[in-house]
Amino acid sequence: MKKLFILLITIALSVVANAQDVKDLYKEGKDLYDAKQYTEAFAKFNSAAQQGNKKAQYYLGRCYDKGRGAVEDNVKAFEWYQKSASQDYHKAQYELGRCYKKGKGTEKDLVKAAEYFQKAATQGNAEAQYELGKCYLKGKGVSLNEEKAAELFRQAVSNPKDGADVLKKIKKDAADGDADAKKILKMIK
Q: How far apart (Å, rounded) are the C-alpha atoms in residues 172 and 145?
């Protein structure tokens, strides 16, 4: 009985230590990524992602998506985004939406794109709110609904985390002559 107890305690401590190691690997990878040391970041993300860390899986997807620390590979990027998104990570859900919208690393599927934008938008992702609004504005992957589009655009630009960046992008696109961006600006006022 005593041996079983010691074994269970050892296993529990090992699991806790491993979880901390995975978090540390992700954090080290993120710091390296932010410092544009992509090759080193890729190695850290890869190790943490293989152990199931959803944020590391997302960043590993980004590395493959952008060719940072790895050879650009849209299929591998899509696969890692999928793994992260399956753990409800909103950034990965947004990226999956983009992959489906463009047919990047997978078949183009506007219905799935809208579904993933919806999942991320529900979690407060401003970029996903904006992209989902565009889906409703054009009726791509969802029924055309300009009221719903306007609501989503307003949510996106008023989002406390990234709303200012979304609004800046819309204004830039409108200044560059994008008719949809001009229409969106009118819708959100």
A: 24
pLDDT digits (tens, 9 = 90+) for 134-179: 999 999 999 999 999 999 999 999 999 999 999 999 999 999 999 9
Task: Find, among 182, 162, 163, the residue nearest to 172 by Cα.
Answer: 182
Q: What residue type is assigned to position 33 of the chain? A: Y
When pLDDT is cut at 50, 70 and 90, the band that residue 189 belongs to is confident
> What letters, b where the CB count within 10 A reaches 16 and e where it falls short, cover 97-118?
bbbbbeeebbeeebebbbbbbb
Q: How far is Cα 140 from Cα 47, in angstroms, rounded to an integer? A: 38
Q: Do domains 16-87 and 93-189 have the same CATH topology?
A: yes
Quick check: 93 and 118 in contact, CB under 8 A? no
Q: Does domain 93-189 have CATH number 1.25.40.10?
A: yes
Whether the Cβ atoms of residue 91 and residue 114 lie closer than 8 Å to each other: no
Q: From residue 160, how far is each of 124, 128, 155, 164, 166 by CA, in Å?
A: 9, 14, 10, 8, 11
For the chain, give every domain's residue range: 16-87, 93-189
Answer yes or no: CATH 1.10.10.10 is held by domain 16-87: no
Question: Mind listing the pLDDT tens digit for each residue in 24-59?
Answer: 999 999 999 999 999 999 999 999 999 999 999 999
